[in-house]
Amino acid sequence: MAFDAGIGAVVFLVARLLFGGLLAFQGLNHFMNVDEMAGYAQSKGVPAARMSVLFAGGMLFFGGLGIALGVFPAVAAGAVALFLLISTPMMHNFWAVPEDQQQAEMTNFIKNIELLGATLVFLVLGTEPWAYALGIGLPV
Membrane-spanning residues where (predicted)? Predict the structure, then answer.
């Protein structure tokens, strides 16, 4: 399924820009709020919390840009998927928090699972040519 012409290519571009752009923004948010995020990560038992937040921010930022721009999109989506697979159960373990925190953690857990599903779509589509992409790391 190549997205190389027509309205489908334009819609796919908009989807890439929205999805990838928001992931990249979330990555930037990790850098802009590293102290707060590291404190939260530490409260969840994340080892080397500050470095983990910075590394996760990099995965989200570069993964999001890769998806948005069509630069090594399978690698980019793989990085985001890896981030979500590791961080979701660790950071949003709704089953192990006090009752007054369960709803918020469950909401974030479900959101991340939804993002993981979308990321897996981009991972699979990263093996196909993309229109309106920089094309670096995409098949011809």
Answer: 6-28, 75-95, 115-138
